[in-house]
Amino acid sequence: MGEPGSEIIESVPPAGPEASESTTDENEDDIQFVSEGLSRPVLEYIDLVCGDDEKPTTYHSGILFPKAPKRQGDFLHFLKVKKVKTDTESNEVSKNHCGLSKAKEPDFEYIEQPIAEEKPSCSSKEEIDNLVLPDCWNEKQAFMFTEQYKWLEIKEGKLGCKDCSTVRHLGSKAEKHVHVSKEWIAYLVTPNGSNKTTRQASLRKKIREHDVSKAHGKIQDLLKESANDSISNLVHKQNNKNIDATIKVFNTVYSLVKHNRPLSDIEGAMELQEKNGEVNCLNTRYSATRIAEHIAKEMKMKIFTNIIEENAKICIMIDEASTVSKKSTLVIYLQCTIQSASAPVMLFVALKELVSTTAEYIFNTLLSTLNDCGFTNDYLKANLIAFCSDGANTILGRKSGVTTKLLENFPEIIIWNCLNHRLQLSLDDSISEIKQINHLKIFLDKIYSIYHQPNKNQTKLLGTVTKELETEIIKIGRVMGPKWAACSLQAATAVWHAYPVLYVHFSHSYSGLAKRLANINFLQDLGLMIDILEEFSVLSTALQSRSTNIQKAQKLIKCTIRALENLKIHTGKYESQIEDLVKSDKFKDIPFNKNNKFNALPRNILLDNIIQHMNLRLLSEQNHDENIFNYFDLLEPSTWPYEEITSPWIAGEKKLFHLCEILKYEVDLNDFREFVNNNIKSNNVSIPPTIQKARKIVSTIAINSAEAERGFNLMNIICTRVRNSLTIDHVSDLMTINLLGKELADWDATPYVKSWSNCNHRLATDTRVRQKSTKVFHENQLAIWNLQ
């Protein structure tokens, strides 16, 4: 019968698909010692021997196995051979143990010694006993396979690779079409087949294919190199060269975004770098878009996480506008106070598309956006102190507006309407009550319609004036509408400076407008309106300043009201110039007269109305029972009624209790008493820490939506008619980098590149990324360069 080992191996049935497809050379490669790795026939032998409830013999540890034949006997012959094999092995084993000659004894000791000394590194029989095994394996088979393949692990009856699960991605060793198997990483490898033999063969094939796969080999190399270091640090060390190249790409994308350039410009920038010797594969607008998204996401995550960890008080500001593609959008800003900053910090949160402009949809969009940034409802209840908007009906509706829904969820917050919009509304309310003002408004609107629509009129007029005057005329726009005072002042001042030229032009084409300009009442009304608008413009500009808080705004408003009261007594800057202008050479060609058809403005009535509406709209807060300024004045000693103050200041302490509820911050009573006593005795005193913190929280309340207007201005710069294919989310990412990002010289791209790599994105040296399209020149274009 010959040697039992050779007969056994030659009689093994086919090992599934792998055996039928193998060639003679492949089978010859499988002839090896166990110390070099078990071959395919040996794996089959393990299944056969360990499939019975007999102890495995040790012949496989030192015997050189011959190659398996291509064709095998049928299944009945296989079972018969297996029985002969096991009987023969039992006889041989008993013969060896009982009556073996001394000459053969050393050989058996040599064969059995490696198995006796080898210790399992990742699996033991005790561990195997507690595992749920594949249904086609028993404990002995599982033990022998896990002993041979140290990377093999079994979880819940499925196989996995602990090495691949540890490393997960190849990093700098990645190649095209080489990927780490997700099934081996997640322990999802199961056998295929309808019977036990086929399922065993299926597992053998999968184990062997994974063991010899290129990806698994690279994982093994990474693990060998990481013996004294963590996997993540090792990947970063090996990726230093790739990371440096990717940093240059990130810097390029960052620069394009900061300068509001289209991301398609990266192709030209990378082409220049390649010409200078740099090789980068992330050179398409698609890669640039993904990089910009990643930078914006990481930037917001880092900033908002720090704010949440500091438990900072916040104020939310929103505004609504439309893009160039007529999509309604909602811009969301956040103002907060942090310890490292002396003044409040205004942060851009997001730009969101509004599918519907109802109050409910706006509220849900706002809340979901804040939640996505990490601001949970519990955090908002504890730290949201104010909400600011421009005052649109949808937002500030008393019955079902956004503010109503906010107060239902966060009842203690301050609802603040933008002071700049309230300032303009106070002027509009005053003017609407006086009918005589209409002729000035109609005249300015008529000029706007003449010189801002047909180019012919512009050319006819502007061809006869100087460049300086041409600039002034172009500035003329609509006034007395829903615009800020600065815009109205610009238009009125432009008419003032271009007055003589406008009269000459209108006298030839528009006689009705020329008659208005020749009316002295019109010139006086124009001077009065410019004086009023100048005061409004100064106040509006001051309110838009980032350093203006709610208490400073109150002082500025009162100062403007006093200036308007003085204007009732004394003529203003422009009014006082009228007499001299009429007599000057510039106005000598205008025949001024008093036309009763255009009555002059009732000067004092107009000023009284403006002052009254400013007090109503700017110095009173309808959302609270008492004036909110009275609570904030507790923190400003200059506003205290010192003649009424006693020690302790009981009335002040009662207000302090309500102030703490508004600010959601507890001011120490002893600090307040010390603060009051020190200010009674002296003006220059140190401020207790809780008082300082309370004052910073008060300054967190946004008083206007100017920052949102700046955001929309940036949105219009980014989303032009040429770039109107940008989605709202992409515009939001670009705005995030532009508004929150540092200057390029101070920005470090390294952490962003490392997080990019950890997210399994391609690095700049990876050739598997999408390549840019190359421009092909026609032969005729290249021919001129080939001339000798």
Outline the secondary-structure elements.
Blueprint: H1 4-10, H2 16-21, H3 24-29, H4 40-51, H5 75-99, H6 105-117, H7 125-129, H8 139-148, E1 152-155, E2 158-161, H9 162-167, H10 182-185, H11 196-211, H12 214-225, H13 231-238, H14 240-258, H15 266-275, H16 285-310, E3 314-322, E4 328-336, E5 345-353, H17 359-372, H18 377-383, E6 384-389, H19 393-396, H20 402-409, E7 414-417, H21 419-432, H22 438-451, H23 455-462, H24 467-474, H25 485-497, H26 499-509, H27 511-517, H28 520-543, H29 550-569, H30 578-583, H31 603-618, H32 628-632, H33 650-663, H34 669-681, H35 689-698, H36 706-718, H37 728-740, H38 750-758, H39 779-783
Parallel strand pairs: 3-6, 6-7
Antiparallel strand pairs: 1-2, 3-4, 4-5
Helix pairs in contact: 1-5, 4-8, 4-11, 14-16, 14-38, 16-37, 21-31, 24-25, 25-28, 26-27, 28-29, 29-31, 36-37
Structural account:
The protein has 788 residues and is mainly alpha-helical. The chain has five domains: 1-118, no CATH class; 119-238, no CATH class; 273-418 and 721-788, no CATH class; 423-618, no CATH class; 628-698, no CATH class. The chain is built from 39 helices and seven strands. The strands form two sheets. Strands 5-4-3-6-7 form a five-stranded mixed beta sheet, with helices on both faces. A two-stranded antiparallel sheet has the order 1-2. Strand 4 and strand 5 (345-353) form a beta hairpin. Helix 24 (467-474) runs antiparallel to helix 25 (485-497) and helix 29 runs antiparallel to helix 31. The longest helix has 26 residues, at 285-310.
